[in-house]
Amino acid sequence: MPVIESSFRPKSRIFRDPQISTIYANLLRFRPRIQFTRERITLLDTDFLDLDWSRTGSKKLVLILSGLEGKSNSPYSKSAVHYFNQKNWDVVCMNYRGCSGEPNRLLNGYHMGATGDIAETIDHILQTYDYTDIVLMGYSLGGNLALKYVGESADILPEEIKATISFSVPMELKKSNHRLNKWYNWHYKKWFMIPLNYKANRKKKQFPEQLKNYRGFFMTGDFIYFDTHYTAPANGYASVEEYWNKSSCIPHLTKIKVPSLIINSRDDTFISEDCYPYKSAAENNALTLELSDHGGHCGFISSWIEKESWMEKRAHEFVEDLIK
Predict the structure, then answer these.
(1) Cα–Cα distance, 35 to 275 (Å, whole number)
(2) Are 8 and 119 found together in one domain?
(3) What is the C-alpha to C-alpha distance for residues 74 and 138, in angstroms, rounded to an integer?
(4) pTM higher than 0.90 for the full model?
(5) Mind listing the pLDDT tens digit for each residue in 51-64?
(6) Please, what's the b/e burial string for 4-18 (b: 16 or more CB within 10 A of its CB; e: otherwise)?
(7) How far apart are CA 309 and CA 29, in angstroms?
(8) Which of 26, 20, 226, 53 is nearest to 139 (CA)?
(9) How confident is residue 215, by pLDDT bands cut at 50, 70 and 90?
(10) What residues pair up with 135 in beta bridges, in sequence order?
(11) Which of 247, 265, 294 lies at the terminal end of a domain, its last residue?
């Protein structure tokens, strides 16, 4: 489908600034109270995942895939859960390995291309519950995972999966990592690198031989070093270039068969120019690329006080047009 202009327009001029929109959304966005029910599933490799459920008794389900170091209590996750529950949808948040408050058992963890865990989670849901319609909703890293999963699994995708919605997707990993190293993103880099290096330090103590080239620092470093000396070797890639190339959703976009909405803002300071897949959207009728002038990274804040954000409203509008 052709690229479309987004309906998102900040009501407050201050939220035209991508830094303010991004930071406000992740620190000060309204967080509704959600009573989650946790379910732990054991994966084929003996590791585990924790799923946090918020049910209404619906046959329709949203599976939320968070961004880097995100989890079920992330502001955007709770906001989406609350909104879709109000619209009579069940929602489940998939906490990635090591992101539910307890370290995972194995060396390998979650990363930009770890779609195997999504496939196992969906298989578990379909075998255990009775959902007729499932929608994947991903933010940043989670958006890349959602798109990669439905693309690479296009010919064997369960019929219950009806759509995906992805926000602020850094689908060109190498260039986006270089973009995050820019001076105007230094605070985001530190925000992510502290918890990531904390977890990696712990893994280095468990698996010193496999991570012998990882220095084990805490307060310094960047994503390029981290992916080179931790992410790639910890997850079985021969090099960081192999990790970046095999984890991107871009090669899979033209294969997607279910309706998939990609929403990126032009002022997102996290993502590179290659993260706006104009060509793929033009070639694949299942893809809709929606672009806004403002919004930052997973921000899309319209005004200072809003109990429902534009993101979940737009997501619900998209799926309701598909699923009656």
Answers:
(1) 35
(2) yes
(3) 13
(4) yes
(5) 999 999 999 999 99
(6) eebebebeeeebebb
(7) 9
(8) 26
(9) confident
(10) 62, 163
(11) 247
- Please identify which residue in the block is written with the tokens 């799926």: 319
CA distance 298 to 300: 6
The three-class DSSP label of residue 165 is strand
Q: Is 55 helix (H, G, I), strand (E, B) or coil?
A: coil
Burial of residue 324 (number of CB atoms within 10 Å: 0-12, 13-18, 19+): exposed
Does residue 161 sit in the same domain as residue 194? Answer: no
Asked if residue 132 and residue 59 are part of one domain, the reply reads yes
For residues 74 and 154, membership in a common domain is answered with: yes
Q: Are residues 9 and 31 in the same domain?
A: yes
Q: In the block, which residue shows the tokens 């994947």?
A: 136
Among candidate residues 247, 280, 312, the one where a domain is terminated? 247
**49 and 40 Cβ atoms separated by less than 8 Å:** yes
Question: In sequence order, which residues have a C-beta less than 8 Å from that of residue 73 and are 6 or more positions away?
Answer: 31
Q: Give residue-wise pLDDT tens across range 9-54.
A: 999 999 999 999 999 999 888 889 999 999 999 999 999 999 999 9
Name the domain count of the chain: 2
Do residues 103 and 149 share a domain? yes
Q: What is residue 52's DSSP assignment?
A: E
**Per-residue tokens: 43:** 């994966």
CATH of the domain at 272: 3.40.50.1820
Cα dist. 30→25, 73, 80 in Å?
Answer: 8, 12, 11
Q: What order do you get walking across the sheet with 90-95 strand by strand?
A: 4-5, 287-292, 260-265, 161-167, 133-139, 60-65, 90-95, 48-54, 37-42
Is the pLDDT at 245 greater than 90? The verdict is yes
The residue segments making up the domain with residue 101 are 4-172+251-322
